[in-house]
Write a structure and sequence with these properties.
3 strands; mainly alpha; 9 helices; globular
């Protein structure tokens, strides 16, 4: 057994936790916890930065050497490097413009999103060919089905049946929206570029048809008499800071 294994066996500590939401860690009061000041979904910091990720892991594992307690919660002291803006960064995708929210019908929105996707997709495909990985695909629907499903929630009852058999239509929309965000933000960053996440998200939420459409769908969902549509569509499509 390794020295670390002996330490765990001796002190009865099975694990140490890395957490992104400090208030949750305070309430759980696990035996060993490291709070990290990073974005949700990035508990080790930025992608493609193994040296930084290793420092986070080492800091978490070193909590196992501590003899005090019973509950230890430490704050990781470093900010993630990717929080710093890259000077002069421009997205890899050039888009013509954004229709004013509420100024288009569902049909107009569908055509506008399809036209924008036609520009974004080739850039994303080229980046994917280099990176060899993606977070697109959680919605389990082909890209061709995304515009009509999302725009269906701009007015009228939800699609019935849902295009995803084990999900309600509004849940399917939520995952398609996640796929849209992933497709656009992955396309925006040229392989090798290191913009901050704020730069990429500012571009997406301020400069794309997709983001304007998502906001319009959220607004329509909030007015829906269907409580599930109102809750999911109102709370899970647009981050509170981007409403």
């Amino acid at each position: 057994m390794s020295a670390l294994g002996h330490l765990i066996e001796q002190r009865g500590i099975a694990s140490t936790a890395i957490g992104l939401v400090r208030v949750h860690m305070e309430k759980i009061r696990g035996p060993r916890g490291l709070w990290v000041p990073f974005e949700l979904g990035r508990p080790l910091g930025e992608p493609e930065d193994p040296a930084f990720q290793r420092r986070v892991l080492v800091a978490a594992l070193r909590l196992l050497e501590r003899g005090d307690g019973p509950a230890i919660l430490e704050d990781y002291p470093e900010a993630a490097p990717g929080r710093q803006d890259a000077a002069g960064w421009t997205p890899a995708v050039t888009l013509p413009g954004v229709p004013a929210p509420g100024a288009a019908s569902a049909v107009d929105w569908t055509h506008a999103l399809k036209a924008e996707l036609a520009q974004v997709l080739p850039v994303w495909e080229a980046a994917y060919a280099v990176r060899g990985r993606t977070t697109v695909g959680g919605g389990r629907l082909p890209l061709a089905a995304w515009p009509s499903l999302v725009c269906a929630f701009l007015g009228g009852p939800p699609p019935d049946p849902s295009p995803v058999p084990d999900l309600r239509a509004i849940q399917a929309v939520r995952y398609v929206v996640d796929d849209l965000k992933a497709l656009y933000t992955e396309a925006a960053v040229k392989p090798g570029d290191r913009p901050s996440s704020r730069q990429v998200l500012d571009w997406f939420w301020d400069r794309t048809v997709a983001a304007s459409l998502i906001r319009a769908v959220r607004k329509a969902c909030l007015a829906s008499p269907d409580k599930v549509v109102a809750v999911v569509g109102g709370n899970q499509l647009v981050p509170s800071a981007r409403v």
